Amino acid sequence: NMLKMTDLMISDPDQEIAEGLIVDNEPIELENEVIDAICPEAITSKVRCAAHTLNLAIEEGLKIQSIRGALARARTVVKKLRTPIYAGLLKQENKKQAIRDVETRWSSVYDMLYRFLELKDFCLKFQDTMNDLKLSLPDWDNIEKMVASLEPAKIGLVSLQKSDITIGDFFAIWWNILSKLQKVDSSLSQAIVISMDRRSKLLF
């Protein structure tokens, strides 16, 4: 069985891979040549390379100066929210506790910002009397865009780490991440797309 190239770029990673299969009578040697051309390395090795490449692309995107500035200001407020006084107030307001990120792991940056957005109304409610909680509206807007930009990558990375992934899944996941990032159209998503495109030339 040979994989049709047009079926390697399906938009839905959950689509049945069987739809991308056709039956023909070509020699097995030709089939192997096509598969080798598509994926010259073992699929597990290529997927590991793809996951690593995606991580590098996101880390590169997070180094944009405007992103770093908004992220640093968000971290400052999050640190305040985790102090005993604010943590107690959050509990009284029936809110979840803030999450600190691990700066060397971008997925934890996503988790921190996602939870921080859930606490936005709390911060806005108390910012006039508790200046430590104050962020500018552009900063809040940047944080929302960062979460929207990191979400497709985080979901895609989880899919790439599945043990039963196929070559069809692999291509579908990669292009699905790119498609969703392009729709977000933020400075971070654009930077990640550019880095993924550049790095994918070595991957594919």
Automatic annotation (TrEMBL):
SUPFAM superfamilies: Ribonuclease H-like (SSF53098). Its main location: nucleus. Transmembrane segments: none annotated. It is found in: Nucleus. GO terms for cellular component: nucleus. InterPro entries: RNaseH-like_sf (IPR012337), ZnF_BED_domain_contain (IPR052035). One of its GO terms (molecular function) is zinc ion binding. It comes from the Eukaryota. Keywords: Metal-binding, Nucleus, Zinc, Zinc-finger. This is Zinc finger BED domain-containing protein 4.
